Structures are given as structure tokens and as C-alpha cells.
Amino acid sequence: MVADAAGVSLPTASKVLNGRGDVSAETRARVEKVLREFGYVPQMGRRVVAPARVVDLVFDDLVSPYSLELLRGVTEAGAEAGVDVVVSRLPDAEHRGPLTPENTWAQRLKSSGREGLIVVTSELSLAQVEGFARAGLALVVIDPLNLPRVEVTSVGATNWLGGVAATEHLLGLGHRRIGFAGGPVQASCSQARLGGYRAALDSASVRPDPELVLHGAFHYRDGLEMGSRLLALPDPPTAVFAASDATALGVMEAIRRQGLRVPEDLSVVGFDDTVMASVATPALTTVRQPLEDMGRVALRTLLRLIAGETLDSHHVELATNLVVRGSTAHVRGG
Q1: Mean per-residue pLDDT for 15-24?
Q2: Mean of the pLDDT values across residues 258-275?
């Protein structure tokens, strides 16, 4: 019954049941799926439990609200699919050990029984990506800082459109000096948000000022530093579009330290719509990207790659939308 339902021969099904290694990953996944669906019990009366399926979820930052919302989406989708998710941090050079053909990140994951991995907001080298491919590990990246190969599968949001929406909102409130507190220069998601910012300014015939565009990490402390630099300009902005909620909160603190108020003196817009946005004082106007859904889509996409399916597109973008709260207001005197 299991062999027929999985579309394989009886000997192949037997190999999977007995944990043999000479079965392709796609075939093994198909047979194990049938085992879970049927709860197969052999004549001895002992339930056969298919070997646990395990994937890695790798973060550069494990403690941010952004990461926690993605984690929730990935683990919920994993539970639905009967897949265990192991959470880890991106290994740095100090913790990778000597890199020999037998001792690489990819090989260690493979030898630990991983079938694939999801990497979040991290920079991957071409050598690492090629190592995953050689080891037979499926790879999906979320909001990558770079794409070493165009065929690397990624999941993100409509960052460019989100940048347009945030900037158009501020322009609609009469702001013309709008700062951009961006993410890392090499981050493709931050560059897309910057592109949307510039496109909105151009559509409104507002000449962009290079002094108003800064870059840093997607962290509170970087937002604080960039906000301080923007406010120290001879002609400071009246509003700031920050490329993440954490960055936006740092900008808001920089404004407070100057004895100014949000939004009476400066308006601030973030990006993400994490829990921080709604509990901030004032509550943060931000571009919502559906982080939990992005996590679910990433896990499901990874399983499709593991099963050998052909994807319609290597790049998936989920829709963003602007959430208006209390951190934005009409420009003073406008």
C-alpha cells in the first residue's frame, strides 16, 4: 500500500522503511510523506516512525522582533509539514574551524542529517552557495544582503513599492526635506527601499539631497547615530524614512535627545511593522511586510526544492502596505 501510494517499487519502499541510504532524497521524501499520512503499522504491530526531517534556520540576529516573527512563521509551517527546524546563527570565520573538503559548513550540516536551510538577512559567499549545492542541501534566503547567484531562491516583500508608499505618505503631509536612514549598502532589500524613496521624490519633482541619505545596520544604535547626523546638518530634514522599525526607533530617540518632538517637529516612518512599532511612543507609522507569512512561504518553498520540484520563480515577493500611526504629521507651517 505504501509503495503504491508513493509510486515506487516495493524494494524501494522497503529501503526507506529500513533506513537504507541508497535512495534519492526526492523518493525518500515521497515515501516518508505517505508513511506519515497512513500511520503505517507492519504485521508485528509496531508503528514505524519515519526518520525525523530536519532543516536549519540561520539568522544573523536571533533576538530582534523581526527575527522572532519570521521564526514563528517558519516553525509553524514546519510543524504542519512534520519537519523539525533547528535555529542557529550564521557561523563566522572564528567558529567555522579549518575549512577542508571534509569540514565545511555545508558538509557538517549534511552529516547532521539536514535536508536544507533557510538563511535570513545574511551575506553568503559564492563558495558557500556552491558548497550547499555540492552537498545536496536545498537553500532559501529571506531578505538577503546579496545574491551570489541569480538562481538562488529568495523570499522577501515588495520593498521598492514599500519605499514608494512611505515616501509618498510624507510628501502628502507637505514634507520635502525627507531623510533616508537605510540599511547596509550591500543589502538588496535596503537598496530597493532606497529606490522607492528616490522614485517617489522624482515623481513629486523633489530633487534628492545626497546628504539626506545614510546607511547603517538594521539596528537601534545605527538609527540613533544616523538620526543624530541628519539633525546636525545645516538644513536638517523635517521627516525621516527609516529602512527598519529598529532603525526608526533609534532615529526617534535622536530626535528626543535634541529636545524635539515626534511628530510635531519631525515625522518618522519605519519598515517591517514588528511589535515595536505599535508599542512605541508615539506609535510608529511603518510599512508592513508580512514577516510570518514570509517565514511560512520560505519553509514551504524549501520543501519543494528538497522534493526536486521546479519553481515558477526563484524570487518570491509578498505585498507590503503602509500602516499610519502617530509618528507622522503635516510639516510645521505647512
Answers
A1: 63
A2: 97
What angle, 0 to 180 degrees and rounded to 10, lies between the N-to-C axes of helices 291-306 and 65-81? 40
Structure confidence at residue 219 as a pLDDT band (50, 70, 90):
very high
Whether omega before 11 lies within 30 degrees of 0, making that bond cis, reads no
Residue found by looking up cell 522624482 in the block: 202
Q: What is the mean pLDDT of the segment spanning 65-74?
A: 92
DSSP calls for 48-64:
PPPPPEEEEEEES-SSS
> How far is residue 84 from each of residues 32, 124, 135, 291, measured CA to CA in Å?
14, 23, 20, 20
Q: Which residue did the predictor score with more confidence, 173 or 136?
A: 173
Provide φ and ψ at 321, rounded to 5°: -150, 150
Comparing CA positions, the residue from 76, 187, 57 lying closest to residue 120 is 57
Please give the pLDDT value at position 145.
78
CA angle (159 as vertex; 293, 161 as ends), nearest 5: 110
Burial letters for 164-178: b for 16+ Cβ neighbours within 10 Å, e otherwise? bbbbbbbbebebbbb
Helix (H, G, I), strand (E, B) or coil at 69: helix
| pLDDT of 99 | 42
Give the global pTM: 0.79
Strand, helix or coil for residue 92: coil
CA dihedral 41, 45, 49, 50 (to 10 degrees): -50
**Among 303, 316, 286, 273, CA closest to 144:** 316
Q: Which residues contact 126 (CB under 8 A, 6 or more apart)?
A: 148, 149
CA atoms lying within 13 Å on the CB side of residue 131: 18
Q: pLDDT tens across 232-248, in order?
A: 999 999 999 999 999 99
